[in-house]
Amino acid sequence: MKMMKMMSRALLLVFLFSSVDSRRVRGHRAQSRQSETPESFPLDFTAVEGNMDSFMTQVKNLAQSLYPCSTQKLEQEMKLQFLINSSVTCNDGSPAGYYIKESRGSRRWLIFLEGGWYCFSKQTCDSRYETMRRLMSSSTWPLTRTGTGILSPQPEENPHWWNANRVFVPYCSSDAWSGTTMKTEQNDYVFMGSLIIQEVVKELLTKGLENAKVLLLAGSSAGGTGVLLNVDRVAELLKDLSHTSLQVRGLADSGWFLDNKQSRNTDCIDTVSCDPTEAIRRGIRYWGSVVPEQCGRLYEGEEWNCFFGYKVHPTLKRPVFVVQWLFDEAQMMVDNIHLSGQPVQEGQWRYIQNLATELRNTLKNVPGMFAPACLSHEIITRSYWTDIQVKGTSLPRALQCWDRSLQNGLRNHGNSSITRTPPKGCPLHLIDSCPWPHCNPTCPAIRDQLTGQEMSVIQFLTHLGFDVQRMAQQQGMEPNKLLGMLSNGT
User: Fold this and answer.
1) CA proximity to 225, closest of 171, 191, 176
2) Taking Cα atoms as reference points, which of 329, 390, 428, 393 lies closest to residue 115?
3) Is 221 labeled as catalytic in the residue annotation?
4) What are the distances in angstroms from CA 160 to CA 27, 320, 389, 397, 432?
5) Tell me, what DSSP letter sits at residue 121?
6) For every residue of 229-285, which 3-state class applies, written as one string?
């Protein structure tokens, strides 16, 4: 009996030794290292009492063999796969594809659509091909990608989706993921964004998606717009292929654009300066775009409306969680508000304040949303995405609450994905009420667009024409106290 206790303790030590080191590795970002396949050491439990020294040698050898197994880098990078259907390509005819990291045993899948503006004419596409070729061609794509934010395999960086099957789809169609145009004699480029998504989903069905419970179609910027345009199409494709029990949802990050009139009119000679409404009008003809069926019927002949979130979202059948900065840098850029050089003029300052008000109005009926009062663009693939909070709730927590509310809706209403009221203390409709850019203290760092140097909130507001130091002095208070009052809307 004494000998058996010694054996149990020895084996327990081996188990603890290996599991502690395993957790230590998982708790830090894995670093590249080459590890040989560990040698196998079978334990022989016969005649232990007569040969204890031999048994302890076997235990020692087992511990030594488990150590490199526990500390070797787990394969966490997503690997590039080109589409089997070679007729679905990037703008220049090079093969489209995706990066994938499968998670054996998980029934949750995350497909992320990359962003990167668009081009809407031969002239703008030629310019894009010269300056941003990786967004029109797969010729220089790396073989692997490391996921960050919601694509990270690290639980501390990605608490809710780290163990899901993760897929990153590079953007190489320049059409906000809407195009279906093949190459013709009149067109040097193809636009197949919507077809690429369809082909990726079909291929993933052969890799485990057919057994999935939940598919989250996510995207940032143009990829966020792509989610709004394609989430119903993906669900209908799976339904047509007899995968009716798979729940399809969307997560649109920084793709909720407003069709504002520009602060000053410009010629439509490039993507950034062109009025977004006019750019999309031209683009959908050039791309051969498809839009969600119900939205297309609602805006027949004016389908460009379906590229703007507040117009297309009410027509969607599948639930979409919306993430949107109240002071989105891309929105300001297309509206010709540039926060570099001289301080902004009074009219521009009014525009900046009105932008947040307009966004709040368009988001008020969206069941699941997260809208911080920050000047930024894109968030869900940033490593700091867990740090941003609205009213004390982080974005990963809000997404978890949304997920729980959808599960409650399914239990009560079958496979309809109705959003229900979340459990108490689990909010999912989160929007800042303070009126200034970066009045939320958890906003990401602000950097000067010319120098790249980090700016304090006081420096930033001064740059916008609001002299915090002078006003605080006039009121007889510290600048930080005044900032606190501004943050509270007072």
Assistant:
1) 176
2) 329
3) yes
4) 16, 17, 16, 8, 23
5) S
6) HHHHHHHHHHHHCCCCCCEEEEEEECCCCCCCCCCCCCCCCCCCCCCHHHHHHHHHH
How do the pLDDT tens digits run along the chain, 490 residues long? 444 444 444 444 434 444 434 444 334 433 443 333 333 334 444 444 455 556 555 655 555 555 444 333 457 899 999 999 999 999 999 999 999 999 988 999 999 999 999 999 999 999 999 999 999 999 999 999 999 999 999 999 999 999 999 999 999 999 999 999 987 666 789 999 999 999 999 999 999 999 999 999 999 999 999 999 999 999 999 999 999 999 999 999 999 999 876 545 556 777 776 788 889 999 999 999 999 999 999 999 999 999 999 999 999 999 999 999 999 988 888 877 766 555 566 677 777 778 889 999 999 999 999 999 998 999 999 999 999 999 999 999 999 999 999 987 665 544 444 555 666 788 999 999 987 788 898 999 877 666 667 777 767 776 666 667 777 777 677 877 776 666 554 4
Q: Model pTM?
A: 0.79
160 is catalytic: no
Residues 6+ apart with CB under 8 A from 351: 263, 335, 337
Active-site entry in 328, 335, 403, 432: 328
The amino acid present at 356, given as its one-letter code, is A
| Of the candidates 238, 5, 211, 35, the residue with the CA atom closest to the CA atom of residue 108 | 211
Write down the catalytic residue from 221, 254, 289, 405: 221
What distances in angstroms separate CA 139 from CA 91, 169, 187, 410, 411, one per listed residue? 11, 15, 20, 43, 47
Question: Does the annotation mark 413 as catalytic?
Answer: no
Tokens of 331: 């929105």
What the block records as the tokens of 447 is 């950097």
The catalytically annotated residue of 243, 377, 429, 438 is: 377
